[in-house]
Amino acid sequence: MPVIKMHLTATSTITGNVNTSTSTTTVPTVNRYTAAVVLGNIIGGTTVIPATSFTNDSGGSVAAGGLVVASSNGYYNLFQNNVLQRGATSTLSAANLTINSALIVGVTIVVEVVNFSSTSTSTSTNNFAITTSIKS
Length: 136
Prior knowledge:
Strand content: over 45%
């Protein structure tokens, strides 16, 4: 007995779009440290101030290795006697601040570290319509 095969063609058309809205919140975290340059900080042509020489915004001592450093989403400012210094004149690590020049004893140093964290939430809605026609 011969087999009869049915041949059908289905065509679908999709119309519509997707709407996406995104809300982003960025929060800065600021840490400030203050120290005075002492004779032992000046080494050759540089000034190295260890973390333990700094106090934080609350007036508390900073522990060894306790300085907050700028993340890839942050930066730090260096002030010498309340004057903002140009970038690339110092290096900040958790252990110390290194200034690329020999400062005078008694100079007040303020370091301001600003890090940013961001969170985003997206919501998508669609209004797709699908129409399918089948032809033999």
